[in-house]
Amino acid sequence: MEAGSSAKETVLITGGGGYFGFRLGCTIYRKGVDVILFDVMKPLQPVPEGIKFIQGNVCCLAEVEEALKDVICVFHIASYGMSGREQLNRKLIEDVNVKGTENVIQACKSTGVSSLVYTSTYNVIFGGQIIENGDESLPYLPLHLHPDHYSRTKSLAEMKVLKANGTELGNGKGVLRTCALRPAGIYGPGEQRHLPRIVSYIERGLFKFVYGDPLSLVEFVHVDNLVQAHILAFEALKANKKHIAAGQAYFISDGRPVNNFEFFRPLVEGKIDQVTEKMKVHYCKQRVIFRYNGTLKTDLFSPVGLYSWSTPFIPMKFVLYDPEGKKLTL
Ligand SMILES: NC(=O)c1ccc[n+]([C@@H]2O[C@H](COP(=O)([O-])OP(=O)(O)OC[C@H]3O[C@@H](n4cnc5c(N)ncnc54)[C@H](O)[C@@H]3O)[C@@H](O)[C@H]2O)c1
């Protein structure tokens, strides 16, 4: 996707009608690559001229295969069950996140798509335990310990995507290269999933402040940083980058760990001014704690000169502790 590259490439984005997928599609298109957005739902915003939208379902292999013709890379972003009422629909969560991912892998193989970038989540290693200074060498959280269907199925899907790395493509077109990106919570302009919900809780006086050890830190990722990470991953699956991302999983965050309270403080304080009468603030011990010791790891893409964006791509480093606070040996 370097500026001025001659051959026109086409990429397909499953979940391209959603918040992140649409943003990724628009950015890639502006870089001169043809983009197909593939989603069960039409995007909320008008689709810019030149970008193709296909209404389709990842649960239907034939629809995915049909859409993948002449595509060089799939960004598999479609997912279901992350928050709200969706979380209760176990069957659909399994179908979309697991079966849908199997279909995408199968369709890549049968149609000869050589690159697959999967949008995973940090939940694949996280089940509420304290993690300090961990990195991608952390093991998957055992599947039975996942607190929700979404996290478990995202984990299963990521494993399938990474296992598919190196498998033969149909028609002797080489091998499939895959990688997985694990974002923290996504925020940014127009975000509809998290912030509006929190605002509505505050307005209804239902917001419970989760405030614990001030040294407890969490990570978020701005949508445009996540876009950049996906573009880097796409490039890093190519032969001219020696496929260095192939078979890899990467945590993606802003690289600025922050206390949860501090992250939401401007929003909450702004809202409190408006709803002081209704507002109730509860303090409780923070359950989810990422402790960060300031060690930065930047070696994932830099060896091939891909480390080139303005906000650094700095995966988190963690150390695992057991419930008694003893360091776990990995
Ligand atoms: N939002 C976050 O904080 C967060 C955090 C970590 C990981 N992620 C991951 O990032 C990705 C993007 O998240 P988002 O917030 O943009 O989600 P989103 O809900 O806005 O987008 C997901 C899209 O997938 C589509 N989709 C659902 N089922 C489908 C199906 N069967 N076939 C085709 N499309 C289908 C939906 O219609 C939606 O447009 C997801 O894979 C999610 O798991 C998100």
Automatic annotation (TrEMBL):
<keyword id="KW-0560">Oxidoreductase</keyword>
<dbReference type="InterPro" id="IPR050177">
    <property type="entry name" value="Lipid_A_modif_metabolic_enz"/>
</dbReference>
<dbReference type="InterPro" id="IPR036291">
    <property type="entry name" value="NAD(P)-bd_dom_sf"/>
</dbReference>
<comment type="similarity">
    <text>Belongs to the 3-beta-HSD family.</text>
</comment>
<feature type="domain" description="3-beta hydroxysteroid dehydrogenase/isomerase">
    <location>
        <begin position="12"/>
        <end position="268"/>
    </location>
</feature>
<dbReference type="GO" id="GO:0006694">
    <property type="term" value="P:steroid biosynthetic process"/>
</dbReference>
<dbReference type="InterPro" id="IPR002225">
    <property type="entry name" value="3Beta_OHSteriod_DH/Estase"/>
</dbReference>
<protein>
    <recommendedName>
        <fullName>3-beta hydroxysteroid dehydrogenase/isomerase domain-containing protein</fullName>
    </recommendedName>
</protein>
<dbReference type="GO" id="GO:0016616">
    <property type="term" value="F:oxidoreductase activity, acting on the CH-OH group of donors, NAD or NADP as acceptor"/>
</dbReference>
<dbReference type="Pfam" id="PF01073">
    <property type="entry name" value="3Beta_HSD"/>
</dbReference>
